[in-house]
Amino acid sequence: MNKKWFPSLLTIGSIAVSSYYYGAYEERQKFFKNNRLDEKQQSELLHKHSTKPAFPSFAAVSAAEPAVVTEVNLTATPWRISQIMKYGFPSLDNVRSYSDFVLSYDRRNRVPYWVFEHLTAASVAKNEEVDRAKCDFKSDESIHPYFRSQNSDYFRSGFDRGHMAAAGNHRLHQKHCADTFFLTNMAPQVGQGFNRDAWNRLEMYVRKLTKNFTNVYVCTGPLYLPHQEEDGKNYIKYQVIGANNVAVPTHFYKIIVAESTEGQLEMEAYIMPNQVISDDTPLQIFQVPPESVERAAGLLFFDKVNKNQLVKINGKKV
Amino acid sequence: MNKKWFPSLLTIGSIAVSSYYYGAYEERQKFFKNNRLDEKQQSELLHKHSTKPAFPSFAAVSAAEPAVVTEVNLTATPWRISQIMKYGFPSLDNVRSYSDFVLSYDRRNRVPYWVFEHLTAASVAKNEEVDRAKCDFKSDESIHPYFRSQNSDYFRSGFDRGHMAAAGNHRLHQKHCADTFFLTNMAPQVGQGFNRDAWNRLEMYVRKLTKNFTNVYVCTGPLYLPHQEEDGKNYIKYQVIGANNVAVPTHFYKIIVAESTEGQLEMEAYIMPNQVISDDTPLQIFQVPPESVERAAGLLFFDKVNKNQLVKINGKKV
């Protein structure tokens, strides 16, 4: 097989996938236009995905192109998605592209597998026109109703709807900020002492990296880590909330690649327990080898990073 | 978008995906041929998937073609895969095609998400040439080492390596039977009282369906079901075994579609707890609405079944 074929084949492949989803969309529109659904039709409808720009159709866009923010994209353009996902997809299950971030949704746990963002000094800069108070948490209709988390699942659960792509990372436009409020981008987090404190400190730290690095790529997601019990055996145990059994992760991870103007890369990986963390705990304590996040999450991060560009992992030279 | 385009677009898309995997395979072969791996190369290699016929390349094969076993396939031919998957893929995450069944692998839990089989009277008939005692449990090198379950994980765990695609369902050729012994097709099961008893009875029941139905499609997999604890909250809890933290599912499901010569379909769905079940428990007790398996598994089964063909669910007319 001649390898020169790949780019064009992949382009065509991408078109095929998009076409499929577009076809499904049209089919669904037909149903709604008829507006006369009997029970059987409803049942059939329940088995069709509502669709939105889902699986990105840009596999042939070269990752080698420089990542610079040219203009504010309000829809998930192939160009912007290829920027965000420059260093590879951790997995390809139920991928959704929003205006300024990309995620993979875990239908069994009703939270994301991973959420990928690309930050620059410009995209995180304070912007008076963007007001997160105007954003509403909303369920994502593109997820099949069986697997869709709802605000009601979180209501009175004792947990915050914790952003994976932080609202504060998406300040170029109100829509960017608003998109981070889709429940597909949320997981139940301990509020006081975690989401509003230690986790928030980590988010601020990531934003701050844009002061010293041209491009910051960050992938965030939940973990369900085992612990040993008195019987000497290891167990994974986590709460589920609401009618849809939304999983409360035991931990969260962030894995970051920061790119200097010279194209050098520094990687950092963090795992934080979903619990109250005292304010004087330094973030560095939560640094872990990137590999341990990969093993626990079942994902491979930054697969396309050129190892020659990688100069530091968790602050240490490699 | 003209819908007549879809079949050819999908064909091209499939080719693209297969090409990609084939390319990756060739790339890997190169590494091995060089046979001079330094540490950096090894680390890079670790981030490449070892590959085998993985993502099926047959999306354009019509599901309308009659499913008849023409000859014994020893490799996962597009034709055979399209037979097995006639009624749709439950999901597309890490799909692997073996000689006589297809599965999707859960890299986080190191067990399958789902395993799909197509059975006929011929394929399950006693065959003196096939001896399951000659089959060895073996790990699947096509799974990245971070996520690959090993025999050592099961050793002395107290759990059986429980087949999802049952060995007894694949008797046309020794290779069919041998392929069911890949650890990707296993999940830890309680041995005495479950794997060797109630679960085995369910497997025999499914095989027996081939006496009355031309084609039997069965999808099998693990579940992790929540339970309420004394604090009134719901939790998902399961043991993990071995160095690779292989998940011990709390339950297993089977969802079956049996097709008569007239093309009429009957569906049955079962959920069984992974625990000792007394021999006098009738299998019917474990029947559940197919929807409840879908919600718990995060999967959609038999999505492409024409609802007009479906005449019974769990023995009741629909």
Which descriptors apply to this entry?
magnesium (chains A, B), 27% helix, alpha+beta, DNA/RNA_non-sp_Endonuclease_sf (chains A, B), three-stranded antiparallel beta sheet, 23% strand, Extracellular Endonuclease, Chain A, 2 domains, homodimer, 318 residues, single-stranded DNA endodeoxyribonuclease activity (chains A, B), eight-stranded mixed beta sheet
Intertermini distance of chain A: 36 Å
Q: What's the total helix number of chain A?
A: 8
Q: Sketch the topology of chain A as an H/E string, one letter per element.
A: HHHEEEHHEHEHEEEEEEHEE
Q: How does the overall form of chain A come out from the CA principal axes? A: globular
Strand content of chain A: 15-25%
As residue ranges, the low-confidence spans of chain A are 27-37, 45-51, 53-61
Biggest pleated-sheet summary of chain A:
8 strands, mixed
Using a beta-carbon cutoff below 8 angstroms, give the protein chain pair with the largest interface and the number of residues from each chain. Answer: A-B, 54 and 55 residues
The structural domain count of chain A equals 2
CATH architecture of the largest domain in chain A: 3-Layer(aba) Sandwich
Average pLDDT reading of chain A: 86
Helix content of chain A: 25-40%
* Lateral strand order in the biggest sheet of chain A: 1-2-3-6-10-11-12-13
